[in-house]
Amino acid sequence: MQKFLAAALLAGAAAASTAALAAEKTVTLAVENMTCALCPGTVKASLEAVPGVSKVVVSLQNKTASVTYDDSKAGVNALVKATTNAGYPSAPKS
To answer: Is 83 exposed, middle or buried (0-12, 13-18, 19+ CB in 10 A)?
Structure first.
């Protein structure tokens, strides 16, 4: 019983430390191929489908997408892949 409790406490501590390391981040992507009023909706939908994404704001005028995401569930590579697979290659804006 003591071994079970120790293992459970260790697993709980590991899960808590992982959650503590997770952070909400925001990245702005430069998005290619957005040429019409329908394009931002497609880009937004592709990004919102990535697990961990909580907010997406797409600008047709600036050809950018600002994405807020949980970095323990998603990363910039997943975001870039999502837009690229939808036909809109992107890269982090510097």
So the answer is: buried
Integer Cα distance of 90 and 93 in angstroms = 9
Calpha distance 91→41 (Å, rounded): 18
Question: What distance in Å separates the CA atoms of residue 92 and residue 67, rounded to the nearest whole number?
Answer: 10
The 10s digit of each residue's pLDDT in 29-64 is 999 999 999 999 999 999 999 999 999 999 999 999
Q: Give the number of other CB atoms < 10 A from CB of residue 22.
A: 12
* Whole-model pTM over 0.85: no
Tell which residue, 53, 21, 42, 28, has the closest CA to residue 85.
42
Q: What is the three-class DSSP state of 89?
A: coil
